[in-house]
Specification:
Two copies of one chain form a homodimer. Helices cover about 0% and strands about 45% of the residues of chain A. Chain A has about 325 residues and is an all-beta fold.
């Protein structure tokens, strides 16, 4: 078994998400550089994901909701059905990111039909969730409850992006009103933009960790995590503590720049926890005109400076270790 | 010494603030029902504040900044000078609340000249503080550092009102970028509006408590507190815990409705900690047309339903006790 090497797991796929299913396959999705589709691939081995056949299971609309910025899809298997959660904006309002849901009509997500279930719905009485720039939803279960965790800005595109948490009533609707899990508190979460995003859940010895990414999408991008006891009320502010410093950040010597937006899965031994994340292998992002939508009216000079259109965020992997206090260690190698 | 009775300390003064000075006098200010001026009074005894002579030391402008909603003044003595901090909006934008500062040119705050120092200034590099609905600033010192704590909404009038904390560089400017101390997390902070406001600081046996008020300005108004160790970094999210339930709320039997927006001072024995707060003695607020500005164009029917123009929030007092864990107990009597 090869858990990892320093070479990318999958090239040019950002916001990587891996689900190891009960059929023994790793299912992989992520943001494609053109931000115009949702792609799936699967493999019995992690290394096999790199060259596995990719299937485009959904394309963006021409206009209206879900017509721009198809970002950070995750595939989840809930109550016997496959779902994909992703964020999208629209041509008429390109920063109006909202979370959307797809459902697979069959059991083979690479080949069966997918249908749109629409936008994720807030709980009754919640007039705040999904009303502003919101993205990066993930789903997890704890003590018999299912949770939805996402990033949202309140106050427009240049406000702080916080992480919110709520219980789910169904795959398409929340049960509880939003709870703010974390806001950018420390310097390392506030570089260029104030950002907490890309939540991912890891459990170990009675503790639950929600890793997240912080700051803008450049070499300053980095990771921290929130920590709680599995038996505490996850919607109680006092249940959580936060890492004072980043736990994963740019490593110039290893040529890992802006690591973040991770997910967790397990190695082929079904025991070793793995962190799948993305990073660039050079410091200054360079926008690639060929992946920019034709509807983008900016000059070439502006596009070249836009890190969002640098296609070279590669999915990478390392094994998570635990320290003497049972806290995860995020060590690049 | 009479610490308190159930009768009001000062009638028709909301957001009460008391500073016990080194001259032995209690200095009292608060929001007056017309929201058009800043008033001061002083007394050697707390009971004497009720009928002490009041001096109007400042009046609102006719238009522009500081022309409407003169709210929650506090008087502080910093580095040998008197300052008043208050919130105000303007006739042209009545919810554009911002914090302003007055400085006294002499040592007698009731008789000497006051000058306007302008709006409180955010730290270099902080483009978020005082840019939206912000009010209720208080000032305190801890371990040789001076702090500014205030309420601000990010995202307009109907967003959540959070509490923020920062170190001060001078009486008119912050030294550090804002840190979010608390956001409305629990049900009792989210009634009608999501509100944390009215911070007030209390210290006891190495602990620092920041009490605050929560929910809308009706009978649902109530109080909780944040708690930290005095020696911890007060700008670190992990230093603080929050009361899971309110510590002071409406008591129908005692005819105390919507208690909150408190300050702390000390009794005439210079030892007993006192909580000065406001409350109504009936449940449903009734707007009083005579205190409403002439520029308000609403109908009489609307004004009568507006709790902001019910003048009967009276300043009240009780002695704070401590439980076996050295935590403050807020008990009405």
């Amino acid at each position: 078994m090869t858990i990892q090497t320093n070479s990318p797991l999958v090239e040019q796929r950002a916001d990587p998400f891996v689900h190891k299913h009960n059929d023994g396959f790793y299912y992989f999705t992520g943001s494609v550089p053109t931000y115009d589709r949702i792609e799936l691939r699967k493999s019995k081995t992690l290394a096999g994901l790199k060259d596995a056949e990719t299937v485009d299971i959904w394309f963006k609309h021409e206009s209206g909701p879900m017509s721009r910025h198809i970002w950070a899809p995750e595939i989840h298997y809930l109550d016997g059905k496959w779902y994909i959660y992703f964020a999208a904006s629209e041509e008429g309002d390109i920063w109006a990111l909202r979370p959307y849901v797809l459902e697979c009509k069959g059991q083979d997500p690479l080949n069966d039909e997918w249908v749109e279930l629409g936008m994720m719905q807030a709980a009754e009485g919640d007039d705040k969730s999904f009303t502003d720039f919101s993205l990066d939803a993930t789903i997890f279960e704890n003590n018999g409850k299912r949770y939805f965790c996402w990033a949202e800005k309140t106050g427009g595109q240049f406000a702080a992006s916080n992480l919110y948490l709520a219980e789910m009533e169904s795959p398409i609707k929340l049960k509880t009103v939003q709870f703010m899990l974390t806001t950018p508190d420390y310097d390392w979460e506030r570089v260029d933009f104030w950002v907490n995003e890309g939540p991912a859940v890891l459990k170990h010895n009675g503790k639950i960790f929600i890793a997240f990414s912080a700051s803008a999408t450049g070499a300053c991008y980095c990771m921290g995590y929130m920590e709680a006891d599995e038996n505490d009320d996850l919607l109680d502010r006092n249940s959580w503590t936060k890492t004072r410093m980043p736990v994963l950040e740019t490593d110039v010597d290893k040529k890992i720049f802006g690591p973040g937006h991770n997910c967790f899965t397990v190695a082929e031994d079904d025991v070793t926890p793995l962190c799948i994340y993305h990073a660039r292998d050079y410091e200054d992002a360079v926008g690639e005109p060929s992946v920019v939508p034709k509807t983008d009216t900016r000059s070439l000079a502006e596009i070249i400076k836009d890190p969002l259109y640098d296609p070279n965020r590669h999915a990478r992997v390392f094994a998570v270790k635990y320290d003497e206090n049972d806290r995860p260690v995020f060590e690049l190698y």
